[in-house]
Amino acid sequence: MAELHDLTALEQAEGIRSGELSPVELTDHYLARMDRLDDTLGAFITRTPEIARKQAADAESEAVAARREGRELPPLHGVPVPVKDLNQVAGVRCTMGSGALTAYVPTVDDHVVDKLRAAGTIMLGKTNTPEFGLPCYTENAIAPPARTPWDLERSAGGSSGGAAAAVAGGLAPLAHASDGGGSIRIPASLCGLFGIKPSRGRISVGPLLHDVTGLSTSGPLARTVADAATLLDAMAGPMPGDPYTAPPLPPGETFADHARRTPGRLRIACLTGAPIPDVDVHADCRTAVEETAALLRELGHQTDELTLPPDDGIRYAFTRVWSVMAANRPVPEDGEELLMPLTRYLRRRGAEVSAMDFAGGMYAFRALAQTIADGLMPTAGGYDVILSPTLAQPPFPVGGLRNNADPQAEFAAIGAFTPFTALYNATGQPAVSVPLHWNAEGLPIGVMFGGRYGDEATLISLSAQLEQARPWAARKPSVWGSLRSA
C-alpha cells in the first residue's frame, strides 16, 4: 500500500488543493518518520515540530479558504521543505554545522526563507551540514553524520548531505539546499536524487551573509525533475541588495513549465577526463557517462567527445578563494578552539592570502567562465550542454575523506573526489546532477550537465526527457519502507 511519503511533492500539493490531503496529516507523517529514522540517517541538526505543526495548521486553513473562494494556491502550498542549516530562519538556531555557533539564534530570515514562507511550504527543521559547508561530506561535532540511505556505512556527501539524506530516506518530499563547490550535486549523486545548482544570481543569497565571490547559491534537491523545478520557481527571484541577477524567464513562464517540454535536438559535449591533473576517474563514473551518452543519441541528440587539458590553475585559484571564505566566517572570540581541524587549517590559510592573490583567483574564475561561455555560444559550432561525471568516485564510507591529523591532505583528497563540480561555481553557470545509473553494488552514480548562464530551462527539459526515458523515482533504498507508519 502506498504511503504519503511515496507521493511526489506535486502529488502531495494536488491532494492539498483538492482537499483529499491535509497539510497537518502530511506534516505529522514526516515528523513521525524523522523521529524513527533521523538518528540513523543524520539528516537534521535541529528539528522544529512546533513550528511545522503551526505552519501546517495555517496552511490547512488557507487551503480551505482558497477552495471556498475559488482562488489558486502556490504550487507547493502545504508541502514540507526543510532548510539547510547554513541559512538563517528567524527564531531558530543556526549552527552552520559548527560547535562554535550552537547558541546562535538569528532574528531575521534569509531572503530564500522568506520566499519559502510565501510559497506556503512547511519547515520541518534545519538539515545537517558540515562546518560552514566547507567539505564534501557531512560530518561535524554536533550531529550524527549524514548517511546515504543506499548504504548506511557510506556518506550522503556534502555540504547538503542532510538535505539529501532527508529526501532520499523519505523524511521530506524535497529540500532546500545550497552549493558553493558542488554541495547540491555531490549529495544528489551519492543519494540517487536530482539536484539543481542554479545560475549565479537566480536565488538571492541576502540579506546578511552575501557571498561576494559568487560561488554559492541555494537550490533544490528532489526525487523528480518536476518537483525540483517547482521548488526552484518558489525560491528564485532577485531581492534588493543582490550583487548578481540572473536573466529572468519570459513573462508567464516557469521552470516547472520546462519540465513538461521537450528540449529539441541538442549538441552535447561529453567530458570524462578530469579537468585537473593527477585525478583518476573511476570506471563506474565513466560508465555512467557512456551509458548516458548512448541514451542521448537514442533520443536524437548529437554527442561529441570533449577533452579539457588538465589545468592546476583553477584548483589553486579555488583553494585561495575558498580559504578566504572560510576565514571570513563569523566565529565568536572564544570559539576558534571548537572548530574542526579542516576549518582551522583553511582559516589559517585564508588569513595568509594577499589581496592580489585573492583578486588573481577571481580573475581566473572570470577567464574560465569566458572560455566555457565561448564553447557554449548558440552558434553553428557551439555546444548546448556539457555532460560529465558528477564525481570522480562512487559513494565513500563515512569518515573516508576526513583526515584530522593532516587537513591539508584531506583538502587535496576532497578536490580529487570532486574535480568536476566546482567548475560551474567558478563560472556561475547552472548545472544539474541526474540519477541515471546505479553500479553493481547498488550505489547511485550521478551524471552532471552544465549549461549556458541563465539557461536552467534547457537543463530541466533535458533532464525531464531523460527521466521519462529511464525513470528513477520508483527505485528506493530499503530504509524507505523499513519503518512504515502504523
Automatic annotation (TrEMBL):
Family matches, as InterPro entries: Amidase, Amidase_CS, Amidase_dom, AS_sf
Domain of life: Bacteria
Domain Amidase: 25-459
Classification via PANTHER family: GLUTAMYL-TRNA(GLN) AMIDOTRANSFERASE SUBUNIT A, MITOCHONDRIAL, TRANSAMIDASE
Family: Belongs to the amidase family.
Name used for this protein in its record: Amidase
Organism field: Streptomyces halobius
